[in-house]
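User:
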Amino acid sequence: MLGPLADMLAPSPRCGTLMALCLLAACSNSPPPLVLDVRVVTPAGQNPVAGGGFDTASVRLREGDAELRELTAPVSGGRFDFTISFSELDPEIALGLELSGPANRLIGAPPVFRPVLSGGSLVIPMGAPGSCESLAGLALDTPRADLGFAQAGTFALTVGGRKDGSVESDGRYLDLLLLTAGPAFDLGLSSGPTRAAAYSDDAILLLAEDQTSLLAEDVLPVILHAGAGPYSAVASRPGGGLAVVGGGSADAPVAGVSYVDIVGTIERLSELTTPRFRPAAALVGDRVWVAGGASGAGALVEVISPGVAPRVLVPDQGDGVRLGAALFVDPLSPRALLLGGVDASGGARTDTWLISCAADCSATPGPVWDQARDGVVYVPEARLLVGGDGPSALLERVVFDTGGARIEAAGRLVHARTHAAALSLASGLLWVVGGEDDAGLRRDVELCFPPELLAP
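Assistant: Predicted structure:
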């Protein structure tokens, strides 16, 4: 049993008086009403309105697939109140909160949650639009870099990675609703790069150098294709679940493909047209695009899908070795930008490719990445690039428009770091954990607040 996850998935019994602001939620179909006590705080743990400067609180709320609701209330005496009637007993809630005043504005959003499972409490961290801030009182169990970081419901797993050799624990779960951490646990992992990705709402695939497992309430070792591990690409599987692509080593790249569906069933049905070590992969429509890797030859992009033989999407363009790149997908059209990675000598790739399948599939040179660097955390679902070698504090964003794609600045971390891990919630709130700087491995947590955060 993976005790920490089983323990943390149980509803919390706490529901007490909180420091600042309260949100009251009444379920119209079920007396007595369910009361959600909401603590609204800065990442430093302070009451954001205690010093004044705010006069209005605004809530944007979506209940399941219902229409977006917007409510406002005055801020008075360091608090505000909302009473919201839900149409269902246990709806899934997406929530965004804004505090505004003549010269101040803060935004925040918790993960999507179900009130009954919240235990009656949640914490909403607030920050200025476009800012990143250190999160006080929450950290990794030990300093780590190249770690796995994946969301399971309202929790996030931090696991593995490079750590001090004397540390026996392998990670812990973070409660994204309460901003607390569960106890550290041990999976017997060696220190080294680790990948983690959710294949369902409450289950995670772990890819380490000496272990591949499915993590839920149990730890279930699984056998993927030979060479599958932290140097494989991982992308969403058509129909749900994950596709695990390539891997192996620089000297012996592999062509294997494994699929994990939403109930954890493993399929090993095909091989890539080209063996690939540290490739990039992304779900585009109902197919997975794969690019990059160690071979330095073969298709620039190939496409895979369960039950269908892989095929070339864009033929060889002479791109050469591109290790550890990313495919950023245009959410509005069948386009993707192949960006980043390093060449055979370890130099950061500044050139990019814009791949489009609006008609026939083709690749054209994309924008030059002036700030190219290794050690970046790619967050494809938010089209973000975080930190990197230097160490760097840069946040950058890939933006698609009618003319193609561009890479633009999106803010700065509080602390420069390379080989960190990052997670973007459905709300857009970005979590950044661990990594490494000139002083060594890090264990701290930062939150970044993109301006579009208020669109649940």
